[in-house]
From TrEMBL:
CDD domains: CLECT. It comes from the Eukaryota. This is C-type lectin domain-containing protein. The keyword Ribonucleoprotein does not apply. Residues 1-22 form the signal peptide. Residues 25-139, 138-250, 249-364 form the C-type lectin domain. Gene3D superfamilies: Mannose-Binding Protein A, subunit A. InterPro entries: C-type_lectin-like, C-type_lectin-like/link_sf, C-type_lectin_CS, CTDL_fold. The lineage of its organism: Eukaryota, Metazoa, Chordata, Craniata, Vertebrata. Keywords: Disulfide bond, Signal. It comes from Cyprinodon variegatus. Transmembrane segments: none annotated.
């Protein structure tokens, strides 16, 4: 009996019992300063915990040690850092803006963004104090919801994450033609734009923040450090870095190999020294892998993605079928000598490259 190859690979994916988390958290119930905790994590694991999205937060909370009420994570406020603009929704990069003339003007420590909806022809952005109460715009599954209740920016963010997905973030979600039937005229409306001087210990550029609602964004370059408070639903607070607390480390289950090899050489290297070439099953894993990819010394980075021309199907070397995809728009036609790589720069899209090309590559450790 002939077996449909697509159903075959779906069967393999659905019945795979081994789930490899690309990183995992470890709770250390020893009281240390933030710097001591950072040193401990770097020596025994990878680094202090980095949190990239709400899925990370839920996983962090689900595995928490019952007797720990608060613990250091890897976020700290630089004493000499410049405030950087971010979008609240994880994975949306801030690379273009639609500021009104004279904005952002930072008149009174203004770290949050809003749309100034004067008329149908002018929906420019401005900056404002995050403690001001404004209407706000949430986003969920390509749909925008205007909320006619006034909240601070943090309250608005919390509401959108609980009821929808997040505050509307990025130019694609804030296109003029999609806003004209949503926004009221002559109202300032919060969007998911904010800036701060907080950075992650491992150098990640993740913009995700989960502050409690009393956090004071007007104090920047404070030199303080962040902790997660389990008695407050895991929301983050800031404290003096010299205070001693338990802490959370993480282990990175992938590694960037900065050597140029063909795809088959990379596959053999990973299986000899680690586990396999990396597999990406969802958007969260895509974001984690692209954090590693940005440090590559080649224009593309091999992944464990290969084209089987006899079956006419792309598949992961772990025998998983493609569920999540992130292809760039290409004119290349699939052929028998192609494998998948990720762009080192830009949006880190996937591309099809000949297996004889030599690039850096990422191995998974589990």
């Amino acid at each position: 009996m002939l077996i449909n190859p697509v159903f075959f690979y779906l069967f393999l994916a659905q019945h795979c019992l081994i789930v490899c988390q690309l990183y995992e958290y470890h709770y250390i119930n020893e009281e240390k300063t933030w710097t001591e905790a950072q040193q401990y994590c770097r020596e025994k694991h990878t680094d202090l915990a980095t949190v990239s999205n709400m899925a990370d937060m839920k996983r962090l909370l689900s595995n928490s040690a019952g007797n720990i009420t608060e613990a250091w994570i890897g976020l700290y406020d630089q004493t000499d850092g410049n405030r950087t603009w971010y979008w609240s929704l994880p994975g949306v990069e801030f690379n273009e803006a639609n500021w009104n003339t004279g904005e952002p003007n930072d008149q009174q420590t203004e770290n949050c963004g809003f749309i100034e909806n004067i008329n149908d022809m002018s929906r420019k952005w401005g900056d404002i104090s995050c403690n001001r109460e404004l209407f706000f715009l949430c986003y969920k599954s390509k749909k925008k919801t205007f909320l006619s209740q006034e909240k601070t920016w943090l309250e608005a963010q919390s509401y959108c994450r609980e009821k929808h997905t997040d505050l509307s973030s990025g130019l694609d979600q804030l296109k003029d033609d999609q806003l004209k039937n949503v926004l009221p005229k002559n109202k300032n409306v919060y969007i998911g734009l904010f800036r701060d001087t907080w950075r992650w210990s491992d150098g990640s550029s993740f913009s995700f923040r989960h502050w409690n609602l009393t956090f004071n964004d007007e104090k920047y370059n404070s030199g303080q450090c962040a902790m997660t408070a389990f008695d407050d639903g895991g929301r983050w607070k800031n404290d003096n870095c010299t205070t001693k607390k338990p802490f959370i480390c993480y282990d990175d289950n992938m590694i960037l190999i900065q050597e140029n090899k063909t795809w088959e050489e990379a596959l053999r290297y990973c299986r000899t020294h680690y586990r396999d070439l990396v597999t990406i099953s969802n958007l969260d894993e895509q974001r984690s892998v692209q954090q590693e990819t940005q440090f590559a010394s080649s224009p593309f980075v091999w992944m464990g993605l290969h084209y089987a021309c006899t079956l006419d199907v792309w598949f992961w070397v772990t025998d998983e079928v493609l569920i999540f995809e992130n292809w760039a728009l290409e004119l290349k036609i699939d052929d028998c000598d192609m494998s998948g790589a990720m762009q080192q720069e830009g949006e880190h899209k996937w591309v099809k490259e000949n297996v004889s090309e030599k690039f850096n590559f990422i191995c998974s450790k589990c």
